[in-house]
Design brief:
Keywords (chain A): Oxidoreductase
Mean pLDDT of chain B: 95
Oligomer: heterodimer
Protein name (chain A): Glyoxylate reductase/hydroxypyruvate reductase
Organism (chain A): Nyctibius grandis (Great potoo)
Low-confidence stretches of chain B: none
Largest sheet of chain B: 7 strands, parallel
InterPro entries (chain A): D-isomer_2-hydroxyacid_DH, D-isomer_2_OHA_DH_cat_dom, D-isomer_DH_NAD-bd, NAD(P)-bd_dom_sf
Number of strands of chain B: 12
GO molecular function, one term (chain A): glyoxylate reductase (NADPH) activity
Shape of chain A: globular
Structural class of chain A: alpha/beta
Number of helices of chain A: 10
Order of helices and strands of chain A: HEHEHHEHEHEHEHEHEEH
Order of helices and strands of chain B: EHEHHEHEHEHHEHEHEHEHEHEEH
Distance between the termini of chain A: 17 Å
CATH topology of the largest domain in chain A: Rossmann fold
CATH architecture of the largest domain in chain A: 3-Layer(aba) Sandwich
Mean pLDDT of chain A: 95
Number of strands of chain A: 9
Largest interface: A-B, 62 and 66 residues
Strand order of the largest sheet of chain B: 8-7-6-9-10-11-12
Chain lengths: 271, 327
């Protein structure tokens, strides 16, 4: 499967009597019905670890681009109407600011490692607290209640897995808890955020800005309000989009498929 | 003139080029502010009052005429670290001290360098336009950038800004090479895992990302030209956060057009802004930003604080923290 296609429905599974394994590119498996697959005796694999650093890098790229107004700045620098660069055109500092990471899995932790080098204060919210060594290596403080993280953060970064529990994890209530000077960064799945609530929050300056690598759907309909807001950066789900990583993903998938076909233990099997 | 604050000459207050309004209250605590307009309208009265000048974005222009008309001028404080717009010898010949603001700028400028590196590598600006364009559906499967984690970063100019970039890049597990007038101490190198390249060629040949962070001097003028660009890998990216004149812009255009290097990201050009018909503005594989290296509320305020500290030291005959001497 590449970019979640072909879509796996019962009809397809019924028509493929010798199907042994589905290898899915990337780490997310929210687009698949695991029970359905297993009922047909079909194995499933993903590519969890190879995407982590690229995705963490993109999270940092979005945070820096948003806070320093990089996209707007580029437009100003190349626009035919620009005559000068105003001295009072300012962005917000990343160094020394507070980053709240929602979802401290592999990707979230790598974001923390990077953010630490920018002397950021790091808060995190996760199903489980990380151990003391892991926390102190990145200087991260656990927020058992997501509210505490939302109230203190200058940047809120979402790196959770999409599950029924994390769907619309960030809605009107959560956005209202955030600082009006805060920025929301989403590198997880579009459905983790209540998009309508986000549009309202951005329009009414409940939060300052958003930077989204993921939306629901992808791409958004061309008349969607998110595409028109000045304080939004959207990228076309490029979290793992580098030549090197895509090649590694493909290699991982090949390994999983070969193992699945020969009855050997499957690397990166999803149970 | 007991009880009167020393006169501080500034170009203008507010508007698109002037001292930020948010800084005025702080400045007025220590100085009697005089704008160039007020000075020119009332030279006779104002000229003796001016003891210090605070340059904001290189203005007011310091020339012989101005220096001659300010008999009590003791110090010129620059907003920012670059001093290439000042004739240091001329100023010194009038017995006037100079200071820049190196501490306030370093984190903010290092962040800008990293922002440009990441945005270029991951094709963020292009990706944004694809994501919001009203055109036909995009073919996202084709859209690939280059990896940052684990790549090789070559830092040209390892001053305080270059070093902060190294600290940040290390967290991305980058392999760090650097070229500098002098080698850093061993413990400084080890802290960031940086390897010294005495010859710039070695750095250029190995780096995936070349970050230029030098001050502009006669020696660094057109430091990166045709020869240097050709030494770089065809898959490499050039990032310039120093001064436009450090790069030979015509050579850069050619290099980008012919695939000699992959891409460039420039926070600085010569001039700023570029003429609207300049070829650099039309290239697909370039990101240009409007000299935003220090343009944050925090950094700009810290710059003014640092300038005030330097000015007050000079006026009180104390050692100036960031004094700049003519070389």
């Amino acid at each position: 499967m590449w970019y979640h296609k072909p879509v796996i429905k019962e009809e397809l599974l019924q028509s493929l009597p010798n199907l042994k394994i589905v290898a899915s590119s990337g780490v997310g498996i929210d687009h698949l019905d695991l029970n359905l697959l297993s009922s047909y005796g079909v194995k499933l694999s993903n590519t969890p670890f190879v995407v982590s650093t690229d995705t963490a890098d993109l999270g940092m790229a979005l945070m820096l681009a948003s806070s320093r107004r990089l996209v707007e700045g580029h437009q100003m620098a190349v626009s035919p109407d620009t005559e000068y660069f105003p001295a009072n055109w300012l962005g917000a500092e990343v160094s020394g600011a507070t980053l709240g990471i929602v979802g401290m899995g592999t990707v979230g932790y790598k974001v923390a490692e990077r953010a630490k080098a920018f002397e950021m204060k790091i808060l995190y919210h996760n199903r489980n607290q990380r151990n003391k060594e892991e926390e102190s290596a990145v200087g991260a403080i656990y927020c058992k209640k997501i509210d505490d993280l939302l109230q203190q953060s200058d940047f809120v970064l979402l790196s959770v897995v999409l599950t029924p529990q994390t769907q619309k994890l960030i809605g009107k209530r959560e956005l209202a808890l955030m600082k009006p000077t805060a920025t929301l960064i989403n590198i997880s799945r579009g459905l983790v955020v209540d998009q309508e609530a986000l549009v309202e929050a951005l329009q009414n300056k409940v939060i300052k800005a958003a930077a989204l690598d993921v939306t629901y759907p992808e791409p958004l309909p061309r008349d969607h309000p998110l595409l028109k807001l000045k304080n939004v950066i959207i990228t076309p789900h490029i979290g793992s989009a580098t030549e090197k990583t895509r090649r590694l993903m493909m290699e991982n998938m090949m390994e999983s498929i070969q193992a699945g076909l020969t009855g050997l233990p499957i690397p990166n099997e999803v149970l | 003139m007991a009880g009167e604050l020393p006169g501080l000459l500034v170009n203008e207050i507010g508007g698109v080029h002037g001292i930020l309004r948010g800084h005025v209250a702080f400045l007025k605590k220590h100085f009697y502010l005089i704008t160039m307009k007020e000075f020119l309208e009332n030279r006779k009265h104002m000229s003796k009052k001016v003891q210090a000048i605070y340059l904001w974005w290189h203005k007011p222009v310091i020339d012989k005429e101005l220096l001659q008309s300010l008999p009590n001028l003791k110090v010129i404080a620059n907003s920012g670290v670059g001093m290439d717009h000042l004739d240091l010898k001329l100023v010194a010949s009038f017995g006037v001290k100079m200071a820049n603001a190196p501490c306030a700028v370093s984190s903010s400028t290092a962040d800008t360098g990293m922002a440009l590196l990441l945005a270029s590598a991951r094709r963020l600006v292009e990706g944004y336009h694809i994501a919001i364009s009203s055109g036909i559906e995009y073919r996202e499967a084709d859209f690939l950038g280059v990896e940052v984690t684990g790549a090789t970063l070559g830092i040209i100019g390892m001053g305080s800004i270059g070093y902060k970039i190294a600290l940040r890049a290390k967290a991305f597990e980058m392999n760090i090479l650097y070229h500098n007038r002098t080698q850093r101490k061993e413990h400084e190198e080890q802290a960031v895992g940086a390897t010294y390249c005495k010859k710039i060629d070695n750095l250029l040949q190995q780096a995936d990302f070349v970050m230029v962070v030098v001050s502009l001097t006669p020696q660094t003028h057109k430091l990166i030209g045709k020869r240097e660009l050709e030494l770089m890998k065809p898959t490499a990216t050039l990032i310039n956060i120093s001064r436009g004149a450090v790069v030979d812009q015509e050579a850069l255009v050619t290099a980008l057009q012919t695939g000699v290097i992959r891409a460039a990201a420039l926070d600085v050009t010569y001039p700023e802004p570029l003429p609207r018909d300049h070829t650099l503005l039309k290239l697909k594989n370039i990101i240009i930003t409007p000299h935003l290296g220090i343009k944050t509320d925090k950094a700009t305020y810290m710059i003014t604080e640092e300038a005030v500290e330097n000015i007050l030291a000079a006026l009180n005959g104390l050692p100036i923290p960031s004094e700049v001497l003519p070389s």
